[in-house]
Design brief:
The complex is a heterodimer of chains A (about 250) and B (about 425). Chain A has about 250 residues and is of the alpha/beta class. Chain A is built from eleven helices and nine strands. In chain A, helix 9 links the parallel strand 7 and strand 8. Chain B has 15 helices and 15 strands. Chain B is elongated and about 100 Å long. The chains are: A alpha/beta (about 250), B alpha+beta (about 425).
Chain lengths: ~250, ~425
């Protein structure tokens, strides 16, 4: 399916503005794009608008102005429900922590996107039994063989294990874009690199947008983007730009 | 369907509060339905108590009082009807039948009714149903007695059983007619009316136990020595009765007959139409029942408020859960309906348990309830009304779910994918 498509960028943002309801100016991005299958490392301190950008790319926030073509869809023109559908169909999201729904077991957590997207469910497997089998095999590959077998709630896992379950959920059903927001910040240094390696190898052809403040992790990725280099918002309530020339000069 | 399952699993994960919430809704549902059921039971029992009787005649009093003592065997008459007046009104050409009733004695807390065998022919209840004999036959001798079904069951009397009756209502009353043994010759089938709790004897039987009595004082001296065998030979024509039932040859005669009784010069009498008196009585009982119903409605409000509190309290700890659901593709709408589903499910389970519990409970304890109420209650069992109430409670639960649903919806919009707690 993907090979037949024209080589549109996976994410293509132009002249994007985002303001919060209170008027705070969070994003002002002239250009930002991610090619299909590209692995991008987005670096920046907290409060620099990273999470807001991820929200726009994931379709949770609608741009105030400008264009956001995500997976070939004009998110800036679409309804919230339509953007939600794209996210369910073709994206995987990993948070910093607390990724799992505590009352569901591991398999149920991994298969959550299938509850919200029939296309995604169909890509995982035609029957519930096959989908469960697929989820179990994916968890096995991520080193959660025993945990996947036991039918225990997700809340009993260690943080590292929870992050791997979240990765499995993001990866299930061949998404086109995986968004990871500081997924390793709760992990120690050793498991951090292993986690990133596993995530990138399991992601296959999917594009990955990986956010972290820790620049040392950028070595795993195709490209490093520093948020201050693309986000030219003037609002210091949201973004602190120590020596970002254009914004500082105008202010 | 998916959302309902998620909502259920989420509620199940908070087992303690969920169970308590369901319990409070179940209890309030059971209370409301119970009040309604007892009310309905009482009402249908009232309405079914007497039918086919055109008029009830007794000493002058209000219709409710007359109805209460003559039919429901509750309370006491203000005065009696003289035998002469009874005969005068029974002999009129527009009269099809009359049944005299004489009350005032009891056995083991059950009222004793002196009457004639016409009672078993003309007294009707429900849809003009005649009394039937489960065992034995109508009384013929002076000391023969016919028991209501409940009397026989509770006292364990069978045909041939002998007993005394006492003056007044309490069995421990000092004034027992010790030397006058009655014998059971018949047991009536169950009717669901006060007849079940009545002991029927002949008017002569009532007269016989009172020979030698004077103004409610037991016989003393020589008159206490009268033998049963002597009594049966004596003239036992009563001087007065408590009330009598009248069946007329045509319905058009009812109002005229009633007017004639009410304006009867030689004795102060009242004639009431049973249907009119029944609805008046119902208005009296209805006031208390309205208050009870009001209380039950407030308990429902309390139960549903508890439901709302539980869900609202859980919202903050569920912000992360909701952000996760959003990240895997849940729409803000889905978040809204997730909470509405939860409220609806809890209300539905509570209402169902409550409705089931009250119905099972009433069936299981109907005997005790009827005994405590003093009159039999109508048919229990799931009714359309239960269904409406249950659906009403579920609907209110559903509607209440909009508040937490809306709050969560707003939160999910502003939180996006990140929740900072």
């Amino acid at each position: 399916m993907r090979s037949d498509e024209p080589p549109n960028p996976c994410v293509n943002i132009a002249n994007l503005e985002y303001r919060w309801a209170n008027g705070a100016h969070a994003l002002s991005i002239r250009r930002f794009s991610i090619e299909q299958g590209e692995r991008v490392f987005l670096q920046g301190p907290s409060g620099s608008g990273k999470s807001t950008l991820l929200g726009v790319i994931a379709g949770v926030f609608a741009p105030t102005a400008g264009e956001a073509m995500i997976l070939g869809q004009p998110f800036h023109k679409m309804t919230a429900a339509a953007r939600d559908r794209v996210r369910a169909d073709a994206m995987g999201v990993i948070f910093q922590q607390f990724n799992l729904v505590p009352y569901l077991n591991l398999i149920e957590n991994v298969l959550l996107p299938c509850r919200f997207s029939r296309h995604r469910a169909a890509r995982v497997g035609p029957s519930e039994a096959e989908r469960i089998d697929k989820a179990r095999r994916l968890l096995n590959r991520l080193g959660l063989k025993e945990e996947a077998g036991a039918n225990r709630p997700a809340a009993e896992l260690s943080v590292g294990q929870q992050q791997r379950v979240a990765a499995a959920r993001a990866l299930i059903g061949l998404p086109s874009l995986i968004i990871a927001d500081e997924p390793t910040s709760a992990l120690d240094a050793e498991t951090r690199d292993a986690f990133i390696e596993t995530l990138l190898s399991e992601a296959e052809q999917a594009a990955v947008l990986f956010v972290s403040h820790d620049a040392s992790l950028s070595k795993h990725f195709d490209r490093l983007v520093v948020i201050e280099d693309i986000n030219f918002t003037e609002d210091k309530r949201v973004v602190s730009l120590p020596q970002s020339a254009p914004a500082a000069a105008e202010a | 369907m998916n959302l309902a399952l998620l909502a259920w699993k989420s509620a199940k994960a908070r087992a303690a509060t969920t169970v308590l919430t369901i319990l409070s809704i179940a209890i309030s549902t059971a209370l409301l339905l119970g009040v309604e059921k007892i009310r309905d039971g009482a009402r249908s029992s009232f309405e079914q108590t007497v039918s086919g009787t055109d008029l009830i005649v007794g000493a002058r009093s209000g219709p409710v009082n007359l109805l209460l003592y003559s039919i429901f065997r509750i309370g006491d008459p203000t005065a009696n009807v003289s035998w002469r007046s009874y005969e005068a009104f029974a002999a009129r050409p527009d009269v099809a039948w009359t049944v005299p009733l004489s009350l005032g004695d009891s056995h083991s807390g059950f009222r004793v009714l002196g009457t004639t065998t016409d009672y078993f022919v003309h007294y009707r209840y429900g849809e003009k149903r005649q009394l039937s004999f489960a065992d034995g036959e109508a009384f013929s001798g002076v000391f023969d007695a016919v028991l209501g079904a409940e009397v026989a069951r509770e006292l364990g009397y069978e045909l041939g059983a002998e007993f005394d009756i006492s003056h007044g209502l309490k069995s421990a009353d000092f004034a027992e007619h010790k030397n006058r043994p009655f014998k059971v010759v018949g047991i009536l089938g169950r009717t669901g009316t006060p007849v079940d709790r009545t002991i029927h004897v002949s008017l002569e039987g009532i007269e016989a136990v009172h020979i030698g009595w004077n103004n409610g004082v037991p016989p003393i001296g020589r008159s206490a020595q009268i033998d049963i065998s002597d009594i049966e030979k004596s003239e036992l024509q009563p001087n007065s009765i408590t009330a009598f039932l009248v069946g007329l040859t045509s319905k058009s005669a009812v109002l005229r007959y009633q007017r004639d009784v009410n304006t009867f010069r030689s004795e102060a009498l009242s004639a009431v139409i049973p249907g009119v008196a029944l609805s008046q009585l119902w208005r009296v009982v209805g006031a208390a029942e309205q208050a009870l119903r009001g209380v039950a409605v407030f308990v429902i409000v309390a139960g549903l408020t508890g439901l709302l509190t539980t869900i609202l309290t859980s919202l903050n700890e569920r912000r992360r859960e909701i952000a996760v659901l959003r990240s895997v593709g849940a729409k803000s709408r889905d978040v809204f309906f997730l909470l509405v589903c939860e409220a609806t499910i809890l209300a539905a389970i509570g209402a169902t348990i409550g409705a089931a519990a009250i119905n099972l409970g009433l069936v299981a304890f109907s005997t005790q309830i009827e005994a405590a109420a003093g009159f039999p209650l109508g048919g229990f069992g799931l009714s359309l009304y239960d269904l409406y109430i249950a659906i009403g409670i579920i609907f209110i639960g559903f509607a209440l779910g909009f508040l937490p649903g809306w709050i969560a919806y707003r939160q999910s919009l502003s939180d996006g994918l990140t929740v900072r707690i």
